[in-house]
Design brief:
The protein has helices at 26-39, 45-53, 73-85, 105-114, 144-156, 163-175, 180-194, 209-216, 238-256, 272-280, 313-327; strands at residues 4-9, 11-12, 23-24, 41-42, 62-69, 89-93, 122-127, 130-135, 221-225, 262-264, 285-287, 306-307. By secondary structure, it is α/β, with parallel strands linked by helices. The radius of gyration is 20 Å and the shape is globular.
Length: 328
């Protein structure tokens, strides 16, 4: 019974601040693709899903590359390298952000809370039907060397983060389950509080409609759906979940002029009801963020994925060896 892996990326680029470790540098991504060509058989997601449905995965190490969200660097940094190494990939798009002047909310929050060297001493935020209050204390101050040490700490996955970083994580937890309008209102309040502009940074830009069409023309790229506003789907009523799933599919198919059949759950969060809605709306597969292998028995609407970080090629080769060793 052959097994395969689906890898999850988000961004290819160099960022000064990357609190969730979403970015892989172009240099490391090139090393990753070299490793994938050498140690596995990179295949398109749709082909892999079709194999699971019918004849089963072929022998060898099947490997699928995916990207979540829809950052512009997927086209400008990732696609040329995918082409150079002849590795297919699926990019899951959040349609409400395509061509907009807004950053993803977690990036906007990072800019507001981790950008300034000094913030006000107190924060009082109305969200989710209650008032949350913070006294920042020493977290008011965030020197460049503290930011750099936070980034190194995150990359190494050890050490204690700064108070400012912990403050960011706490406010993030408050904002994540909110609906889009309430979250946008909270971000506006936060930007006024912190004195930070909300215009999108070029480094954090989402794909434009022209960018999406350019990706769609590339033979190696498949495009999938990732909702309209990137909500935590299980936090929404069923009707709202269905609307996020259906409207994303509709908007993408209108833009591309062809069916869109793959889906990825925002934050990897879903319930059995969510998965049923995705199936009912005409998708043939959905990716989660749970670690694991794909094989003949895998539920196509809970496809597991392995999160890839900004490792060098040697580290990725070791990870692949460990992963496939366990899954063999």
């Amino acid at each position: 019974n052959a097994a395969g892996l689906i890898l999850m990326y988000h961004r290819i680029g160099e960022l000064q601040s990357d609190p969730w470790g979403l970015a892989v540098s172009p240099r490391h991504f090139a090393e990753h693709l070299e490793v994938l060509r050498k140690h596995a058989q990179p295949r398109p997601l749709a082909q892999t899903v079709n194999a699971i449905q019918h004849q089963g995965l072929p022998g060898g190490r099947t490997l699928v590359v995916t990207f979540d969200d829809g950052y512009a660097d997927n086209l400008y940094n990732a696609a040329p390298l995918l082409d150079r190494y002849d590795v297919p990939a699926t990019v899951f798009l959040t349609t409400g952000y395509i061509g907009g002047a807004r950053e993803f909310w977690w990036d906007a929050l990072e800019r507001i809370l981790l950008g300034p060297e000094v913030l006000p001493a107190e924060l009082r935020l109305a969200a989710a039907g209650r008032i949350s209050e913070w006294s920042l204390g020493e977290a008011r101050y965030y020197a460049q060397d503290t930011l750099r040490s936070d980034r190194k700490r995150f990359a190494a996955r050890h050490g204690t983060p700064s108070g400012r970083y912990e403050f960011y994580r706490e406010v993030h937890r408050v904002l994540q389950p909110l609906g889009e309008e309430e979250r946008r209102s909270a971000l506006n309040d936060l930007s006024d509080w912190g004195g930070v502009t909300m215009s999108a940074r070029e480094s954090h830009r989402c794909l434009s409609p022209d960018d999406v069409m350019a990706l769609a023309r590339l033979e190696l790229i498949e495009l999938g759906a990732h909702t309209v506003t990137h909500p935590a789907l299980p936090a929404l009523p069923e009707a709202s979940q269905r609307e996020e799933i259906r409207q994303c599919k509709l908007e993408l198919e209108q833009l591309l002029g062809r069916p869109v059949t793959s889906f990825a759950y925002p934050y990897g969060q879903y319930t059995a009801e969510t998965a049923a809605l995705v199936r009912e709306e005409g998708f043939s597969s959905a990716c989660s963020t749970q670690a694991g292998f794909v094989n003949q028995q895998t539920d196509l609407f809970c496809l597991p994925r392995m999160r890839v970080e900004d490792w060098d090629g040697e580290r990725l080769a070791r990870m692949l060896s460990d992963w496939f060793g366990v899954g063999a």
